[in-house]
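Protein: Protein kinase domain-containing protein
Species: Stentor coeruleus
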Amino acid sequence: MDNIGNFDKLIKEQIDKMKNKYTSFNVKSLRELKFDELYGYKTGKYPDEVVYIVDMIIAYNYLQGSQAYRYDFDKVLNSLSGLIVRDSVFFSSKSIICKLSLKMNNEMTYVNTIEDLLYIVKSCALSNLFVQPLILQIVTNKVYATINELSENKEKFACVCDAIVALISYKVYYSSLYNSFAIKVIRYLENPKNKEPNRWHILTCLKKFCKGSLIYRINTLEQQNQNCSFQDISINLNKDSISNLLANSIEIYSSPTNTTEIEVKVYKAILELNNFLAIKTIKGYESRNSLKELSILKDLSGKKQCFLQLFGDYIIGTTLYIITEYIESTLEDKINKNKIQNQPFSNDEADEIIIQLLEGFAFLKSKSIYHQDIKPQNILIKNRDIKIIDFGVSTTLTTEENSINLYTPQGSPIYAAPEIKDALMERVYDKEKQVAIEYDIEKADIFSLGLMILQIITLQDIVGLNSSESEENRNNLVQKISGWKGRLLAGMLCNRPTERFTFKNALSYIPSKSTVI
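Structure follows.
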């Protein structure tokens, strides 16, 4: 695309293409809307194709010099980012890039807060706008000036740290500036009188751009955070206390949209004692799965080390809030890190993790709870201690019920047992499809756990290893594993459920501490 005229032509072509497809509103009239009305289409539940046209119109009007867009620069940038992600051809044009860069340089004078600047930095990074040298230089100069202006403002420390980390991700270094800023922040955090709500986040950011003795001081501050005990935590849950916790938190997970009837988010929150908590919010909690998960959490809390400690739950409107202890990393994170570093789990470390997993899931079975979504993402790990989480699709049976029955398969198709994998794959393509099939729910969990243990030991990509046709490939991997773990996996990963281990069988393979090999 060589010029703005061609961009205008592309918009007209896209509108003509879409105007007959979406009859609920007039696509053609989008070009006549004011900015706020037009931007509203990005925040509503409109098809991606319509949002794409809206982004193009906003970008076109902005590049044409529309004065109405000057004071909504952050929203304009949001549209530019969305457009670049979807249509890199547009921003491969040198003439368009030059025009955009010059306008951004002028518009930067209207960025008055570090929060707005951070939004711009992150948007540029996510949309690969930083690939363009002119834009990178403009943003860098503004960040440099802003850090100098606001580094003394204690309330802005976290935002400045975020901006620096974003710049460093694109290899923009101002070592002397970053270090002098870091020293001020560290001195501030080292004063026990200063109760910084974003303390944990700031320390995480500082470690990404500090070196030498500063790292030692950061590690010391982190250790001070970790030395607080959960035993003394008492939370009086009410609407105000929930709001205060969320005010000192960061969102770390959000359920994909349009996949379920409920919306789930998880936040990492901090208390005054520098203890971290996890807050899980479930909007539309009335669903049976949500209440069932809460019931399981209450039943398991404090019963065994491999389950999260539950501090309480509270309902505000249609949202359920569940507050538990917080652990930073998942087993998936640990596996990926080891794989990248080409550093397998040590024999002792693997043994400890696997034994905890076997004992934890066997304990669930003893209480007639079947997880149904066993995978590394649902195992938290700190040092070598694991926590089993996410009971949203779990099944609880009565003591009289047989584990072989009609069930609607749940969980991830990648870790599912062969007998339910096909049913789960069908649901990937048809979200509404809920077909009950007869299978042994205990044996299905055993297979998923076995596949996860195989991944821990080998660090192999296990995608596709859970089909009936891949039995030979699984066996080849298992045969390379010596000792009790190899014998264990041979029984857990049988194709036929009737030949597969139960949890009782699996537990019998755990050796005593004196004989672990």
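Remarks: The CA atoms of residues 254 and 265 lie 4 Å apart.
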